[in-house]
Write a structure and sequence with these properties.
Blueprint: E1 3-5, E2 17-23, H1 26-36, H2 41-44, H3 46-49, H4 61-74, E3 82-90, E4 99-110, E5 115-123, E6 129-138, E7 145-147
Length: 158
């Protein structure tokens, strides 16, 4: 089992970068719809989606945003991070089967609040930027190194 480590506020430097990869699976779309209540047919109904400007089903925009959240929580700053704010610009649709790479870069630190601003970009497997934005987080004070938990198993059913 691999370790999950974080960066404390004092360890973080302007320009520091991290990456996080995640494939968009059919199950992700279904689970996100179930958890969020967003059952827009653009995401769930292939026949309906075929009549839209995209011509096929696409992932929820906020699912891609959740990948940014995961990058912050798992990579930089990592476990113990408190999410404060996120701006997002959705540039291109994310499709089922896409592999998304989230790139983070520290752009600002605030010593008084121990907050960190990060530039966030999500890029698909073709090198196309699909989401951009900025996140503001409170970085952890305590250094952590712990076993990486397994992802929860979930099942779609009646």
């Amino acid at each position: 089992m691999t370790q999950l480590c974080n960066y404390t506020y004092d360890e973080i430097t302007i320009g520091q970068q991290a990456r996080y990869k995640r494939a968009v699976r059919e199950q992700d779309i279904q689970l996100f719809a179930a958890v969020s209540g967003d059952v827009n047919p653009l995401h769930l109904d292939a026949e309906f989606a075929a009549t839209t400007r995209f011509g096929e089903r696409i992932a929820h925009g906020m699912l891609t945003a959740a990948f940014i959240s995961a990058a912050l929580a798992m990579e930089l700053p990592g476990p113990g991070t408190i999410f404060m704010e996120q701006s997002l610009r959705f540039r291109l649709p994310v499709k089922i089967g896409d592999e998304i790479t989230v790139e983070l870069e520290v752009i600002e630190k605030n010593d008084r609040r121990k907050s960190v601003a990060l530039d966030c970009r999500a890029i698909n497997q073709h090198g196309k930027v699909v989401v951009t934005g900025t996140a503001l987080v409170i970085a952890p004070d305590e250094k952590l190194s712990l076993p990486r938990p397994a992802e929860p198993r979930a099942r779609i059913g009646d």
